[in-house]
Amino acid sequence: MAEQMSIDSAPPAGGGPSPGPRYDFEDAQSGDLGALAAIADAMKSDNLTDRLESLKRLSVLALAMGEERTREELIPFLDESIDDEDELLLALAELLGDFVQYVGGPKYAYVLLRPLENLAAAEETVVREKAVESINKLVSGMDQLHVEEYLIPCIARLSSGEWFTS
């Protein structure tokens, strides 16, 4: 049975204290658990560069986790981890628009709406625009029932929320 990795835990680092973790993403393509844990750990880093780099490798993590775990663990983790770095928010908004294949296809596209809704309510205009663009990508493949059940309430919440002006 394959060893499962939680996105909230990375393997313990060996040796003494260091100024910060080093992330080696090169072996992630092969499914190496240490490299996959490095991606997950980098997503929680204080260093913006590490977090941006981890977003670039998020599809590798999603593939390794599988569709169900991506829906149930990774997407909620991303939604809860949304922070205030505009560059990171913009990258995440763009990434989620192309993430349908990793959550199980159009049948499960609705699970991406929640983090995109949060991004569509962000303060920065370019982040909001990219999130809405990604939502539009999702909707094109969603069935009518999911549009009615998930998208319409999402739009209603966004329309009643606070809007920021520049």
Task: Briefly summarize what is shown.
The protein is mainly α. The chain contains nine helices and no strands.
Describe this protein's structure.
With 166 residues, the chain is mainly α. The protein has helices at 33-43, 48-56, 58-65, 67-81, 86-97, 100-103, 113-120, 125-141, 144-159. The longest helix is centred in the C-terminal third of the chain and has 17 residues, at 125-141. The model is unreliable at 1-30 (pLDDT under 50).
Secondary structure layout plus pairing:
Elements: H1 33-43, H2 48-56, H3 58-65, H4 67-81, H5 86-97, H6 100-103, H7 113-120, H8 125-141, H9 144-159
Helix pairs in contact: 1-2, 2-5, 4-7, 5-7, 5-8, 7-8, 7-9
Terminal residue distance: 53 Å
SSE-based structural type: mainly alpha
Count of runs of 4 or more consecutive helical residues: 9
Low-pLDDT runs of 5+ residues are: 1-30
Query: What string gives the helices and strands in order?
Result: HHHHHHHHH
Please compute the radius of gyration using only Cα atoms.
17 Å
Largest sheet, in brief, is: none
As a percent range, the share of strand residues is: under 5%
Q: What's the shape?
A: globular
Helix content: 55-70%
Q: Give the total of beta strands.
A: 0
Q: Mean pLDDT score, rounded?
A: 80
